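Sat 14:20. Reprocessing the chain from the morning session after the first attempt stalled halfway. Input below, unchanged.
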Amino acid sequence: MTLQEFSESSNQLRRQYHQLEEKLHNTRWTREEDALAFLTDAALVGRWLMAKEGRWPSEQEKNLPDKIGECAWWLAVIAERSGIDFAAAAETFLLKTMQAMESEKE
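Finished this time. Tokens:
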């Protein structure tokens, strides 16, 4: 799956969650609520990495791959809701960073 396909699938799934939110709460989550959910999941990645290294008491580290995937999903969703092309943003970041690293070697 390409990043573009991932982004499209992520946003299709998010639309389904919006329907559930409307059913349960009569409103969709805001972009800020999506960002908070992402930050919560990102924090869990940190804790579960610590657990994996034996530095935090948890047995949730087995869920680390899913949580990392969920963080990528949230980023794709937040990008779309912010008018940003997720795949292009990721590619641009990598290319710029790789070029900067190459310049440092010279």
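The longest helix spans residues 3-25.
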